[in-house]
Write a structure and sequence with these properties.
The protein is built from 17 helices and 22 strands. It is α/β, with parallel strands linked by helices.
Amino acid sequence: MKFFRFASSVIDTAAERARITDPSCGGYASFEGWVRNHNEGQQVRHLEYEAFELLAVKEGERIIQEAVERFGIDHAACVHRVGGLTLGDMAVWVGASSRHRQEAFLACRYIIDEVKHRLPIWKKEHYVSGDSGWVNCERCATAPQLSREPQRGAQDHHHGHPHRHDHGHRHGHNPVGAAPAPGAGNFVSDYSRQMTLKEVGAAGQAKLRAARVLVVGAGGLGVPALSYLAGAGIGRIGIVDGDRVDPSNLHRQPMYALADAGQMKAQLAAARLHALNPDVDVQVYGLKLTAANGAELLAGWDLVIDCTDNFSSKFLLNDLCVRAGKPLILSSIYQYEGQLQVIRSERGGACLRCIWPEATRDGLVGNCAEAGVLGPVPGVFGSLQALEALKLLLDLPGQLGDELLVMDLLTMQVSRMKARRAAACLAGPCTRIPGAGATVDPAKLELCFASLADAQAEDYAIIDVREPVEVAAQPIPASGARHIPLKALLRDSQQLASSGKYLIVCASGVRSLAAAQELTARGFNAVRSLTGGLSGLPG
């Protein structure tokens, strides 16, 4: 039996009192809050209460149990009205029964104070002047600090009603600087600011509570996206990421700290989200998304958000979501700009391959490590991904359709490019799982050497594809090596003989592998990439 509940009609106090009547209890106390005709200088005509009932009932039951344990009472109950109330209507009733009256008094007071401060309940007052407004939760009173043990023998002159009879209790967190209420660690998330929006309300919040969103990548894009989704009250969030925190991440991934270096991002992010909103169910997948595990990972989710930093993962996610008929929100970043696309192939919309049929090889366009990025840039686009997710789940207007949003944050120029579904996609989904477009297994194109001299001893010509500024800062440790920047090499690959034997090197092995894949696809017979790049060489 629930001991906290909501009522949409008149509260039957006799029936409620009967629920907690016990022959072994000699003490009984109750609190009744009534709608009065004024509040803070305004004449009140009537009011209405709205609540996020799913969370409120759960937290209300917790409050009742706390009162029973804290004050040693036998029974307690609380009923709160929702909907429209007129002057003189009872807005809330609290009752407690115990062996002695003092414990019942204190328990009653504790329950109403906690209900005021912890439950997601909102009150809208309608005034005689014609104005109306939702009561601001920041004006709620600070609950008095109660001792854990009842003070036996204390005088009480309330005659069973430990609080004044009014409707003036307000719900929400304590005002800034106020002392926390008892049980502050048991607060539930407060969604009042977004529920005040007429497009959201209680019904919209319930939709978010029922939503299941999978976020692939917990880095620069994923950190803001995950934070805002959890803060909004998404019921279940999945995190897919197999990377560990590196100090170079922190300027754009402020969810993590320097002391977290070396730890798995997915587990750290889950802990942060739980601290932000304990009611969100966070599922952790500390691994990399692949063609082998992708379909299984995506099963059971309503919406997927791509926060990865490589082309192969983005195209793979596109293909998986198109085949599964799931919405996908894509974003990518390059230096000061980024782009955003919402893929709704289940509604006949364009997919990623309708714009770019083949994935660009990873490494051909510099990632954050190579091209550089200002921290707020992925922050902006990750936030936009969360915004588009909420718009989609709440069916809000202004959703991105068949278009690509491109924004340059240096000039603040915004462009929208039409993205129409390709003819090939109309005939059948234009997906290519596994989708990287490579004709050779990348692992077969990588070689490890203890030094570049060892590679030269095996007749490999060394080709350095780094940018000139990188070469100047760290000259290559090999005589006879040839420097051809990546863009120049791909623009004119005839600078090299297709029959030659080449070892391509870069800083970390990403660009060199992309170059090796591209040159192999162009007919080069013996091109390999140095595994791990120059940073992977011993010493």
